[in-house]
């Protein structure tokens, strides 16, 4: 590309600018309108109760007010079911499956044929039959043929308002209701292990629910301590940022030393735990032999766990030390850029709070996408089909239960029944549900990337106005952040939509590849797997490159007001003309900011670990008793990282903006009286450390 030439009229972000990429702006507005229409249609047809509440064989909800099954909240089938909210009983041999809403799950073995001759047993059995059976005088075989009652009952337990066989193991023997065999209702004895395969997933769900309940209990007793930990992380991040404003050089070196010390302590602690477990019973069991355990504390009693932690921390410590040794001269140069970024943030302090606006908008995007996805996935309708045992021309056709008895079907096929088959639909809306779900995912990526782009171009405009102010801060706008935000929305919505659209397309392709990879896991075609892995790698690299290009293009948009393609081209060529500076300065500052986040997260994480494990004697009795102490610790660590990332992302955008402005300044001006630099004295010191416009090796 051609270097920028001296322009005596250029004094920073151009205010006299026009709208850019109008076509993309119109396209975004149309897409948002379509997205709203999809949401309204989904909310009109969808019913999230289908995910939560069970249904009977007719597709009617169990235990819901205003429904025929209001008094029977549980769903049971063929082997029966419920709980305090009613359950569903499912008969696995009846096509379609017999599902009945019941008030409680069965607690004993029983078949309909044996209950028929006993009035008390039959009265108990009635609770697990359809409402039509209550006053029925049919013979037993007719009742079973018409699917008004299940052929048998099995002791069951309620899970998610559904009745599942109460499988338990006693001394290694699988049992259901203290029995190892059961009568299948047809005069044959079967082993309860035949029920095991069908209930395996239910047991996994049950264990998961128990784990979730324990985690929820931990949150209820530790939530205020978690909030205190996150507040400490926020205060620490804010203090760190403020100290960078005045003591950037000292703080960077303190940060580097502290990171090394924190990792060093982690290595020491892991070694001590590893040595302490030597000789203890069960501590030498391998992680592969132990397998997955819901109680993660079990892993902390294994030497192999602490050895793995020790190796990971040693490798991380070694990598950081080697990088510091080889980058020691570059770090001195990067510190000068960080000092200038600290001054810029100091003049635009409102920028530290701006990530909250971006976070709020992203939460709106996530909430709209999630709710629309749920309503779309539950917008199927109950479909009824004609079922019969003899030959019938109407078999398998769609029917309506309300008019079925008066239709010609019952005349031509006397044994035909109109039964609930599945949730679906045959309208155009139901046929294109998968397309609407795809559109929902695509719009989520597009809008999320647009929100991030809006935040980046706003911060870039504010910090660029600082750099190109010849007399700082006199030549800066009164409200640089709000001015940049207004310019971005008024003139460059189309450009932001363009950049975010390109990125969204790549991300959707990546999601599709991940889905295909998941579907092909069981495939034996190694070439297909290899090709898919190559495509995933290529699109991952492409996404990273587009993010890098977009970020710098947004900086150019904020400064010059050009369209997206022109800005991306100019930014790319500017960086290529200064590729060594990009590698030396830009990436070193990113590394230093990563160390800053690591320091804050590590410090708060260690404090949370000692507190929740009752190792701080002063507050030993204050820490709440927990099922899993890793729950609040991980929450504090993840929350601390997000908070620290929010603060340092502002610094990162500031450094990138100042760096691009610095390169522009070097090309436009030569430091003479006629062409003076806009850069501060601090950056002129950085310039002295370069040789012919390139950093000193």
TrEMBL record:
One Pfam family here: Choline_transpo
GO cellular component: mitochondrial outer membrane; plasma membrane
Molecular function via GO: antiporter activity
Membrane topology per record: Multi-pass membrane protein
Transmembrane segments: 21-43, 223-243, 250-268, 306-327, 348-370, 443-468, 489-509, 553-576, 588-612, 628-648
Record carries keyword Phosphoprotein: yes
Reaction(s) the record says it catalyses: ethanolamine(out) + n H(+)(in) = ethanolamine(in) + n H(+)(out); choline(out) + n H(+)(in) = choline(in) + n H(+)(out)
Alphabetically ordered keywords of this record: Antiport, Cell membrane, Glycoprotein, Membrane, Mitochondrion, Mitochondrion outer membrane, Phosphoprotein, Transmembrane, Transmembrane helix, Transport
Superkingdom of the source species: Eukaryota
Biased composition, class Polar residues, residue ranges: 62-77
Functional description taken from the UniProt entry: Choline transporter.
Descriptive protein name: Choline transporter-like protein
Species of the source: Struthidea cinerea
Gene behind this protein: Slc44a2
């Amino acid at each position: 590309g051609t270097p920028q030439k001296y322009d005596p009229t250029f004094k920073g972000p151009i205010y006299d600018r026009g709208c850019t990429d109008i076509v993309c702006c119109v396209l975004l507005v149309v897409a948002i309108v379509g997205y709203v229409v999809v949401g309204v249609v989904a909310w009109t047809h969808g019913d999230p109760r289908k995910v939560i509440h069970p249904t009977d064989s007719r597709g009617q909800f169990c235990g819901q007010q205003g429904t025929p099954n209001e008094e029977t909240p549980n769903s049971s089938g063929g082997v029966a079911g419920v709980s305090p909210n009613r359950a569903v009983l499912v008969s696995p041999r009846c096509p379609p499956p017999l599902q009945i809403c019941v008030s409680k799950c069965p607690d004993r073995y029983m078949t309909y044929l044996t209950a028929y001759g006993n009035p008390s047993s039959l009265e108990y059995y009635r609770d697990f039959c359809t409402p039509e059976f209550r006053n029925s005088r049919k013979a037993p075989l007719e009742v079973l043929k018409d699917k008004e009652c299940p052929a048998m009952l099995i002791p069951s337990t309620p899970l998610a308002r559904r009745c599942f066989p109460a499988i338990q193991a006693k001394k290694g023997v699988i049992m259901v209701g203290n029995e190892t065999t059961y009568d299948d209702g047809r005069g044959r004895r079967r082993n309860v292990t035949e029920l095991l395969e069908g209930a395996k997933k239910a047991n996994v769900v049950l264990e998961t629910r128990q784990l979730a309940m324990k985690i929820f209990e931990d949150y209820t007793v530790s939530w205020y301590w978690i909030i205190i930990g996150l507040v400490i992380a926020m205060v620490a991040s804010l203090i760190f940022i403020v100290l960078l404003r005045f003591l950037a050089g000292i703080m960077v070196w303190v940060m580097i030393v502290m990171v090394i010390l924190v990792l060093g302590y982690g290595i020491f602690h892991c070694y001590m735990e590893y040595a302490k477990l030597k000789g203890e019973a069960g501590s030498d069991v391998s992680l592969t032999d132990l397998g997955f355990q819901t109680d993660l504390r079990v892993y902390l009693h294994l030497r192999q766990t602490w050895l793995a932690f020790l190796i990971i921390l040693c490798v991380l410590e070694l990598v950081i030390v080697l990088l510091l040794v080889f980058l020691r001269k570059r770090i001195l140069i990067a510190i000068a850029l960080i000092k200038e970024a600290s001054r810029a943030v100091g003049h635009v302090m409102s920028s530290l709070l701006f990530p909250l606006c971006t976070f709020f908008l992203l939460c709106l995007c996530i909430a709209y996408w999630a709710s629309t996805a749920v309503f779309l996935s539950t917008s199927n309708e109950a479909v009824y089909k004609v079922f019969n045992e003899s030959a019938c021309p109407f078999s398998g056709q769609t029917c309506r239960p309300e008019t079925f008895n008066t239709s010609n079907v019952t005349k031509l096929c006397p044994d035909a029944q109109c039964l609930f088959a599945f949730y679906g639909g045959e309208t155009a809306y139901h046929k294109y549900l998968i397309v609407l779900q795809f559109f929902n995912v695509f719009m989520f990526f597009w809008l999320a990337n647009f929100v991030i782009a809006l935040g980046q171009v706003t911060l870039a405009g504010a910090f660029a106005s600082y750099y190109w102010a010849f007399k700082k801060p006199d030549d800066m706008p009164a409200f640089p952040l709000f001015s940049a935000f207004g310019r971005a929305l008024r003139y460059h919505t189309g450009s932001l939509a363009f950049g975010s659209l390109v990125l969204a397309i790549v991300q959707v392709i990546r999601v599709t590849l991940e889905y295909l990879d998941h579907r092909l896991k069981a495939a034996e075609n190694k070439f297909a797997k290899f090709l898919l892995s190559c495509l995933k790698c290529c699109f991952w690299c492409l996404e990273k490159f587009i993010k890098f290009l977009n970020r710098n293009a947004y900086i150019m948009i904020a400064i010059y007001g050009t369209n997206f393609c022109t800005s991306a081209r100019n930014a790319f060529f500017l960086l290529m003309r200064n590729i060594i500076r990009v590698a030396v300065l830009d990436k070193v500052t990113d590394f230093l900011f990563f160390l800053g986040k690591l320091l804050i997260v590590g410090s708060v994480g260690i404090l949370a670990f000692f507190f929740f494990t009752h190792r701080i004697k002063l507050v030993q009795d204050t820490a709440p008793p927990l099922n899993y102490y890793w729950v609040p610790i991980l929450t504090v660590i993840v929350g601390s990282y997000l908070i620290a990332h929010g603060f340092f992302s502002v610094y990162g955008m500031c450094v990138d903006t100042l760096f691009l402005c610095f390169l522009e300044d070097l090309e436009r001006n030569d430091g003479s009286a006629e062409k003076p630099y806009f850069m501060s004295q601090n950056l002129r010191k950085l310039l002295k450390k370069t040789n012919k416009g390139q950093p000193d090796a």
